Amino acid sequence: MTRLTHFREILRYVPRFRDRAFVIAVDGAVVEDENFPNLLLDIALLRSLSIRVVLVHGAAHQVRKYAAMLNMTPSDVDGTGITDRETLQVAVTAASRVTHEILEGLSANDLRAAYPNALVAHPKGILGGVDHQLTGRVERVDVGQLLTLLEHDIIPVVPPVGCDGAGNSYRLNSDAVAVEVAKALRAVKLVYLTTEGGIRGPRGVVRQMTVEEADAFLKRHKPDLSPVAQTKLAHAVRAGKEGVERVHIIDGREQEGLLGEVFSNEGIGTLVYANEYQSIRPAQKRDVRAVFGLIQQGVRSEELARRTRADIERQIGDFFVFEVDRNPVACAALIAYPAENKAEVASVFVDDRYANQGIGARLIRYAEEAARARGFAELFCLSTQAINYFVQKGGFRLGTPDDLPPARRERYEQQGRKSQVLVKPLMPPSTAAVAP
Ligand SMILES: CC(C)(COP(=O)(O)OP(=O)(O)OC[C@H]1O[C@@H](n2cnc3c(N)ncnc32)[C@H](O)[C@@H]1OP(=O)(O)O)[C@@H](O)C(=O)NCCC(=O)NCCS
After folding, report:
1. Best substitution site from 389, 415, 420 to test ligand 1's pocket, by max atoms within 8 Å of Cβ?
2. Residue 361 CA to ligand 1 centre (angstroms)
3. pTM for the complete prediction?
4. How far is the CA of 348 from the centre of ligand 1 (A)?
5. How much is the pLDDT for 432?
6. Structural domains of the chain sorted by starting position, each given as residue range(s) with its CATH number in brackets
7. What pLDDT, on a 0 to 100 scale, did the predictor assign at position 279?
8. So what's the pLDDT on residue 356?
9. 174: helix, coil or strand?
10. 53, 23, 26, 55: which is closest to 194 by C-alpha?
């Protein structure tokens, strides 16, 4: 993608995000990474688009380092275990250092920032018979304080330490802090920047999951996930269940990772989304560019027949798209041949980055239901490289050019692609309803 198109993509989102909050949770190790100055530039861009940014940071990496310098073994590093008095001192020093480093970086980018005391904390208490001592949990977020800063164009930088009303400090887990801050501010996005990137499943990084899918994934794959992935996903699920609509888990060391993930389909991480929006919808005029882009990918690999942009503009009413976070990532068309009582499912294309996640199957099912609802007796399609897919996953059988409506057959001969014809008889809805 050229920079200019990139910029256009970004601008598309501006009305939706203007004056809404993004909570960006940075692991301590990411702050020390060489990509951190790039992240600060990305944050400056978000600010210039009137997106309110709150930075929450961790300090586990620095706690380890600082403790090693002191030749001591901390009782906990990330605010989840038991924090004894000495470890709390190390954690407060390490966290303050990280906060300061972030403040320095932000001011180098002409961004005003401040360290608020916005977390009211209490001891985590005795869990399973174990006293967690000075490890705390967030009791309340002082939203008024954060909003005052945001309204004055100041980025709050929130460390993983909180105080109670009596002036005692507690070590907090930054992933949990980020969830509480995002909830309190009704943030539109919570972004975890880690040193590992998206959540890996058996087939590579899972690009998107609903909260329910993420919950099930966590239960099924917990033993295979790294500790970092486990905590990020668990917190993403909790945030989703408690009202944060979008949680991204991305690699903070990846250049353009942040902007790529939150503003386009080009990201590299995992999105956990909460609201059950309809993923498939009929395409509209504004989708012409996205649909054209998807089909071009298929044309390049000779999987799809050529279509000009003008063709797509004319036929956009036949298309439907599968969208993730409002971005079309796959498309298909249903073309009616009323005289023959048949319909064609055409131009099925799933962006490579979203392959093998059941999207193709859902598009074909959608086309099938739509064709059935319109009373067509048969669905057909033409394929060069996904023949087995339509047979094995879609329940189509091999057909011949004789199965095509005459007008379609004529075009088939002209195109000379020698695609395989595939056919699926459709049962009327009433019969389908009683079928076993
Ligand atoms: C074919 C296509 C739609 C599949 O989409 P998808 O969302 O990745 O597929 P799903 O997640 O629904 O299904 C994945 C399964 O199908 C299999 N599969 C994917 N593409 C396949 C192909 N071309 N041939 C045979 N099997 C295929 C996968 O191996 C996987 O199998 P498994 O479940 O046994 O592990 C997609 O690869 C695509 O866009 N292809 C290019 C365009 C095309 O050929 N369109 C058809 C002409 S209209």
Report:
1. 389
2. 8
3. 0.66
4. 10
5. 35
6. 3-273 (3.40.1160.10), 280-434 (3.40.630.30)
7. 74
8. 85
9. helix
10. 26
Which residues have any ligand 1 atom within 6 Å of their CB?
Answer: 298, 303-304, 346-350, 355-361, 381, 383, 385-386, 388-389, 393
- 358: amino acid identity, one letter: G
The structure tokens 């899918």 sit at: 213
Q: What is the pLDDT of residue 1?
A: 45
For residue 71, what is the DSSP state? Answer: T
Residues of the chain with pLDDT under 70: 1-6, 9, 264-267, 275-278, 428-436
Q: Specify the pLDDT at position 287.
A: 94
Q: In the structure encoding, which two tokens stand for residue 388, read together?
A: 């087995």
For 163, the 3-state DSSP assignment is: strand
**Alpha carbons within 13 A on the beta-carbon side of 418:** 0
The owner of tokens 């088939």 is 412
* Cα 306–chain centre separation: 31
Q: Which of 280, 349, 356, 415, when mutated, tests ligand 1's pocket best, judged by the most ligand atoms within 8 Å of its CB?
A: 356
Helices (H), 201-273: 211-221, 227-241, 257-263
Rounded Cα gap, residues 121 and 134, in angstroms: 10
Per-residue model confidence (pLDDT) at position 17? 84
Amino acid at position 144, single letter = G
